[in-house]
């Protein structure tokens, strides 16, 4: 009678896809167990038994159901039924990949084994098709450590001559179907030779066979390496070899493993039954299934049963991964930052045989022993920096050595600033380097507010420290970080500090991080690199490459793209001819953006491509030698062709107006919008926007999916549109101030018609914003409304409009201020609201609009006082914020009818706002010293909690924090605002890094231990009556505040202090 075990006593799950594989698996059982009662929620049918002392559950996919998805479904049900399963085996047949370096034969076995590129299994068909090829996405987990340890023991036994594979295979000796003799000949045909037809290869030509040396022994060989998994059968030799090359060399193709690796920790074992080409047949399947099963038994047999008890169940492993993923999701992430994001899928990489010298230089730096950890590629607009950056990112991504990439874009929303720079890099690193994931998640858990901390803190906590914890054995020894167009970041201070922070990657030891960075050679970036020793960064000036080399590359680019256009339109193979290509190269004047725009313009001509080429040739003159002039000409040509000569003058003027309105808006937007959002914001029909942009796709990226944002192909087109001289007339020139005025008016109108109290129907006034689903916020506050809420003040300021009492701005604030603040809270942008109101206060002239100025001033006090509660609970805008506002508050009076009626007795409050603007919370102990920066934008504070903090003086937001082992008692800003002078040394404000080198040019005047000191030397002792409770330093002036209320002023001359 068969033994019956409980479900929780089974520890190993064995999955197979075909009946022949199931039969082979059951032969390997040392003992077969009785069936259990079927779970009504489980559709699987199981075979139960033991192998090597381990209780094993064997399950086969339903007949006719093969592939990743069925495998995942079967594994999920098995895990739910048998909760004690620790790990699994995916055992069966696969298609081998012939390789001169790895002699794979039919009947051999391939076992998935991780390397520094993959976890042992790669899903080769998951991704998207782009102009530069198929972009694979996602990564799969490695097998559990206990199975990898078993694989190592099996390999060692083989080397010692103690392999038991033949012993286990001998269990098939009485089963003829599984014997090698019945499998037939082992024939490999050339990859490019297709099957001639029939069930066998009887009609295939023997002269197309690959000549291989006969093996001395018929012993089955086991190979270890990467297995490629997909949802379709690989049955083409050419495709097999191409995919294998792209993946860095795989040993086998199969169809189920990719569905398991991230949801069911397992080892994949495949017996080779064919060569994944068109000559497939089933004659080797039984033998291959048997060798794979024997190998699987060999792996299980070397794992002591006691080790099983120490390992986690499959469920626990999956849950741990889910926990890590959920922690990682807490970090703010810029979806469009990576080089291969959906929004960038049509952006090109370098063509073969172009940019050869610069790419060689980059790879030499990245792959060699160069100690310089940053490569700065700088060049003028349109010289091809971003294309090179995408090429570098693609190359290292394909080789599993791309750590992360971030492509900045002016006006690109999340990628136009550094707010999500390091958090996005950390998320990509965790995904691209699995061994890093746990360390990064630990950093997030330790500092839950890390995403709101300074760039330095984010860089150190989320990137440097996790990387420093890697031992180098579980990952690559080198990773490349690609940062493109840093000059398009909208904050010059961040532009300066980012290169300095990235240079700290030099401190890493076990793993090297190379940073490839591109930008225009603008002053803030040059300043940043000036702070880094030349020995730590390599510079390459793109626009100084020999013109002949650049012209050669542009020639290849033009010839390639025009040949494709000619093929699309069935033109003569010789079109357009070498002479035309040479002339176009001259017109490009070294600018790749000119060549790219020209090709897009010609392609859009469709049946008139030849005519459009003639237009380019006839409208451009070599006499215009400046590259910018040639760029002007191609842009003007594109715009003129969007206005048909058949239109009447009146129709042309209408179209010119529409072009200026729509293109102007796209050019000056602070964050890109879709066609739908832009049309809603501008109050024009979607059809008008569609038709206006229809012929402008050579300069604009107009997605077919109209929910995706519109983008300029290149920032140089924006520069062109906003420059009256370059546009050569009024038809296309966009008046930047007028464009901002149009958008400011549109934003105010949209908010006035969209915003209302409790817009998300939260009902309960205490609901926290963290408990409101983002989908609900997006539904109630569409993207165009969010845009209006965030940027209307910025557009207003850029327009230079003069404001007056009772104008639309005044009326908007009087009617919708609280609704606007509620909306900002819901989208997590209260800080932006504080900045907006403060900016508006400085913009409104009190003498010309006293009532508006008074309202804005009061609104600023209202927001600063209530920022903390409104940021957390949006509906408290109408409760706590109004109830506790002073009686004479303009805002309170204006919105008194919005105070909830359920508050029957209101508290007694002060008549006016007091002197306290806001309270900064963060220090945990006594605050010893506070100082304002010279421009009044920053506040620095030092506390007995051994921290120095920097605050935004306008919004009160915490910007940076430095933890020290000592207390700092006094601090002050240098006159330049670049340094903090403390009694313990000098701090760099941009990084809060303690500087060790003396700075002779600084006036390091401060008060410490009852002394006024300068540059470390005591110069004036303070008697008890003059000892201060607080100190401020401005240049040579020291101000002492005393507990009695008295204030003392001391001023010192520059120069030597001697007696």
TrEMBL record:
<feature type="repeat" description="WD">
    <location>
        <begin position="920"/>
        <end position="961"/>
    </location>
</feature>
<dbReference type="InterPro" id="IPR015943">
    <property type="entry name" value="WD40/YVTN_repeat-like_dom_sf"/>
</dbReference>
<feature type="domain" description="Nephrocystin 3-like N-terminal">
    <location>
        <begin position="361"/>
        <end position="520"/>
    </location>
</feature>
<feature type="domain" description="Nucleoside phosphorylase">
    <location>
        <begin position="12"/>
        <end position="297"/>
    </location>
</feature>
<dbReference type="GO" id="GO:0009116">
    <property type="term" value="P:nucleoside metabolic process"/>
</dbReference>
<dbReference type="InterPro" id="IPR056884">
    <property type="entry name" value="NPHP3-like_N"/>
</dbReference>
<dbReference type="Pfam" id="PF01048">
    <property type="entry name" value="PNP_UDP_1"/>
</dbReference>
<dbReference type="GO" id="GO:0003824">
    <property type="term" value="F:catalytic activity"/>
</dbReference>
<keyword id="KW-0853">WD repeat</keyword>
<protein>
    <recommendedName>
        <fullName>NACHT domain-containing protein</fullName>
    </recommendedName>
</protein>
<dbReference type="Pfam" id="PF00400">
    <property type="entry name" value="WD40"/>
</dbReference>
<dbReference type="Pfam" id="PF24883">
    <property type="entry name" value="NPHP3_N"/>
</dbReference>
<keyword id="KW-0677">Repeat</keyword>
<dbReference type="InterPro" id="IPR035994">
    <property type="entry name" value="Nucleoside_phosphorylase_sf"/>
</dbReference>
<dbReference type="InterPro" id="IPR001680">
    <property type="entry name" value="WD40_rpt"/>
</dbReference>
<dbReference type="InterPro" id="IPR036322">
    <property type="entry name" value="WD40_repeat_dom_sf"/>
</dbReference>
<dbReference type="InterPro" id="IPR053137">
    <property type="entry name" value="NLR-like"/>
</dbReference>
<dbReference type="InterPro" id="IPR000845">
    <property type="entry name" value="Nucleoside_phosphorylase_d"/>
</dbReference>
<dbReference type="InterPro" id="IPR027417">
    <property type="entry name" value="P-loop_NTPase"/>
</dbReference>
């Amino acid at each position: 009678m068969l033994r019956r075990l409980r479900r929780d006593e089974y520890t190993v799950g064995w999955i197979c896809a075909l009946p022949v594989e199931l039969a082979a698996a059951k032969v390997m059982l040392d003992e077969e167990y009785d069936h259990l009662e079927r779970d009504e929620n489980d559709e699987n049918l199981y075979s139960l038994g033991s192998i090597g002392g381990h209780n094993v559950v064997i399950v086969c996919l339903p007949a006719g159901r093969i592939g990743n998805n069925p495998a995942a479904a079967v594994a999920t049900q098995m895990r739910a039924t048998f909760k004690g399963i620790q790990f699994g085996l995916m055992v069966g047949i696969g298609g081998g990949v012939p390789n001169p370096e790895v002699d794979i034969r039919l009947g051999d076995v391939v076992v998935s084994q991780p390397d520094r590129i993959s976890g042992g299994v790669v899903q080769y068909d998951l991704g998207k098709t782009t102009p530069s090829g198929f972009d694979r996405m996602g990564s799969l987990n490695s097998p559990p450590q206990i199975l990898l340890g078993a694989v190592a023991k099996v390999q060692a036994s083989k080397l010692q001559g103690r392999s038991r594979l033949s012993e286990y295979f001998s269990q098939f000796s009485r089963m003829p179907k599984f014997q090698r003799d019945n499998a037939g000949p082992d024939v490999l045909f050339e990859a490019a030779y297709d099957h001639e037809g029939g069930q066998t290869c009887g009609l295939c030509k023997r002269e197309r066979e690959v000549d291989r040396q006969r093996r001395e022994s018929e012993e089955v060989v086991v190979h270890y390496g990467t297995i490629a998994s997909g949802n379709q059968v690989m049955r083409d030799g050419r495709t097999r070899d191409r995919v294998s090359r792209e993946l860095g060399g795989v040993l086998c193709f199969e169809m189920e493993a990719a569905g398991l690796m991230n949801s069911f920790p397992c080892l994949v074992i495949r017996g080779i039954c064919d060569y994944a080409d068109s000559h497939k047949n089933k004659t080797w399947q039984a033998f291959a299934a048997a060798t794979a099963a024997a190998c699987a038994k060999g792996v299980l047999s070397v794992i002591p049963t006691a080790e099983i008890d120490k390992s986690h169940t499959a469920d626990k492993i999956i849950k741990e991964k889910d926990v890590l993923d959920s922690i990682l999701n807490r970090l703010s992430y810029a979806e469009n930052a990576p080089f291969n994001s959906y929004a960038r899928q049509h952006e090109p990489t370098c063509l073969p045989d172009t940019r050869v010298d610069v790419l060689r230089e980059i790879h030499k730096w990245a792959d060699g022993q160069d100690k310089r950890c940053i490569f700065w590629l700088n060049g003028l607009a349109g010289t091809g920096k971003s294309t090179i950056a995408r090429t570098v990112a693609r190359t290292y991504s394909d080789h599993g050595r791309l750590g992360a990439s971030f492509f900045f874009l002016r006006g690109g929303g999340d990628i136009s600033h550094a707010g999500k720079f390091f958090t996005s890099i950390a998320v990509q690193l965790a995904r691209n380097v699995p061994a890093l994931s746990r360390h990064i998640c630990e950093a997030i858990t330790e500092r839950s507010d890390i995403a709101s901390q300074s760039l330095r803190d984010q860089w150190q906590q989320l990137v440097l420290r996790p990387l420093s914890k890697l031992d180098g054995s579980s990952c690559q020894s080198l990773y490349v970080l690609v940062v493109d167009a840093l000059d398009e970041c909208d904050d010059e201070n961040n532009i300066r500090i980012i290169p300095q922070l990235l240079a700290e990657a030099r401190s890493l030891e076990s793993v090297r991080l190379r940073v490839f960075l591109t930008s225009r050679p603008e002053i803030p970036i040059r300043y940043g690199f000036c702070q880094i020793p030349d020995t730590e960064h390599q510079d390459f000036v793109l626009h100084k490459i020999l013109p002949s080399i650049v012209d050669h590359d542009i020639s290849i680019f033009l010839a390639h793209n025009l040949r494709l256009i000619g093929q699309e339109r069935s033109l003569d193979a010789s079109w357009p001819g070498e002479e035309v290509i040479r002339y176009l190269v001259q017109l490009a004047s070294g600018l790749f953006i000119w060549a790219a725009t020209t090709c897009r313009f010609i392609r859009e001509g469709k049946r008139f491509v030849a005519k459009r080429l003639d237009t380019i040739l006839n409208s451009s003159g070599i006499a215009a030698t400046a590259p910018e002039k040639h760029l002007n000409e191609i842009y003007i040509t594109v715009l003129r062709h969007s206005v048909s000569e058949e239109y009447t003058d009146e129709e042309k003027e209408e179209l010119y107006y529409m072009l200026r309105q729509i293109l102007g808006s796209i050019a000056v937007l602070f964050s890109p919008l879709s066609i739908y959002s832009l049309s809603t914001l501008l109050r024009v029909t979607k059809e008008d926007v569609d038709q206006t942009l229809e012929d402008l796709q050579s300069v604009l990226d107009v997605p077919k999916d109209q929910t995706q944002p519109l983008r300029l192909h290149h920032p140089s087109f924006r520069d062109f549109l906003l420059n009256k001289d370059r546009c050569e007339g009024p038809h296309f020139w966009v008046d930047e101030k007028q464009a901002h005025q149009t958008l400011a008016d549109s934003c105010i109108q949209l908010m006035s018609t969209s915003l209302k109290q409790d817009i998300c129907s939260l009902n309960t006034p205490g609901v926290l914003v963290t408990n409101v689903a983002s989908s609900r916020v997006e539904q109630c506050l569409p993207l165009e409304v969010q845009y209006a809420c965030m940027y209307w003040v910025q557009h207003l300021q850029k327009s230079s409009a003069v404001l007056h009492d009772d104008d639309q701005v005044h009326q908007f604030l009087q009617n919708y201020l609280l609704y606007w603040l509620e909306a900002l809270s819901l989208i997590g942008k209260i800080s932006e609201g504080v900045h907006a109101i403060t900016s508006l206060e400085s913009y409104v002239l009190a003498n010309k609009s006293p009532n508006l100025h008074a309202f804005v001033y009061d609104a600023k006090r209202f927001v600063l006082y209530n920022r903390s509660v409104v940021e957390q609970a949006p509906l408290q805008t109408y409760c706590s914020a109004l109830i506790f506002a002073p009686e004479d508050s303009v805002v309170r009076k204006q919105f008194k009818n919005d105070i909830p009626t359920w508050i029957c007795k209101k508290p007694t409050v002060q008549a006016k706002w007091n002197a306290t603007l806001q309270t900064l919370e963060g220090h945990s102990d006594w605050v010893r010293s506070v100082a304002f920066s010279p421009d009044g934008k920053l506040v620095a504070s030092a506390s007995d909690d051994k921290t120095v903090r920097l605050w935004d003086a306008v919004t009160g937001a915490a910007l940076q924090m430095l933890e020290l082992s000592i207390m700092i008692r006094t601090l002050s800003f240098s006159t330049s605002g670049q340094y903090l002078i403390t009694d313990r040394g000098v701090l760099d404000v941009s990084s809060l890094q303690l500087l060790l080198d003396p700075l002779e040019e600084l006036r390091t005047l401060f008060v410490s231990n009852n002394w006024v000191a300068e540059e470390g030397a005591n110069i004036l002792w303070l008697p008890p009556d003059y000892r201060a409770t607080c100190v401020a330093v401005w240049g040579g002036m020291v101000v002492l505040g005393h507990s009695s209320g008295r204030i003392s002023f001391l001023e010192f001359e520059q120069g030597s202090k001697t007696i």
